[in-house]
Amino acid sequence: MNSQTQHLLIDGPAGPLELAIDLPVTAECGVAVVAHPHPLFGGSLSNKVVQTLARAFVQEGWRTVRFNFRGVGKSAGEHDAGRGELDDLLAVIASQAATGPLCLAGFSFGAFVTSHAVARLHEERHISKVVLVGTAASRFQVAPISPELHDRTLVIHGESDDTVPLSAVLDWARPQHLPVTVVPGVAHFFHGQLPLLKHLTLRHLRA
To answer: Which residues contact 110 (CB under 8 A, 6 or more apart)?
Structure first.
């Protein structure tokens, strides 16, 4: 993301996992982990939406970890339709954010995986903020967000998303009474609207 980004490999469930870590200029207030879109369609830790989310967290004082799911970049293993990728995400959290304040975020396939990490972890540790962008609800079984986390969760979706229809996300959110922030006229990758995505994320983190 910048010249100060730290790159390292950690032990993962299927072999090494590649991480990119960005440190805030101010004192750290915790760790944020951001998950990338679908590995079989070019998703990686360098995705522009993922980088935009990471910049927002870093700006607000969070040590921010992006990582490549298994089979992407220098991460070992093969794509596992979300099952192994959840294990990857949990391994990154255990390695980089075992204790202390934690934020979780994801884009598209990464939002789907993040939802399951939130469901797995929320009863055993405090999760400060959750950000889900372009949540792949039409393609995967996204986990519901626990009611006590609704105030700490931001779901953002583009009105004109042609990859994941807005209707699919609303169908997922409606039974939970979980609010969804809809950005008019925006497609899946937020082309031309990444500054707005960053602003919405910053506003959520500051709330």
So the answer is: 34, 35, 36, 37, 43, 50
Q: How does DSSP classify residue 150? A: G
Could you tell me what percent of the chain has a pLDDT over 70?
99
Token pair recorded at residue 45: 């830790």
Q: Are strands 6-12 and 30-35 parallel, antiparallel or unpaired?
A: unpaired
| Cβ pair 169, 119 in contact under 8 A | no
Count the residues in the chain: 207
Neighbouring CB atoms inside 10 A of 191's CB total 11
Task: State how far the Cα of 204 lies from the Cα of 36, in Å rounded to an integer.
Answer: 20
Query: For the segment 103-147, what is each residue's pLDDT rounded down to a tens digit?
Result: 999 999 999 999 999 999 999 999 999 999 999 999 999 999 999
pLDDT of residue 27: 86
Q: Are 17 and 71 in contact (CB under 8 A)?
A: no
Position with higher pLDDT, 140 vs 2: 140
Contact between 7 and 78 (Cβ < 8 Å): no
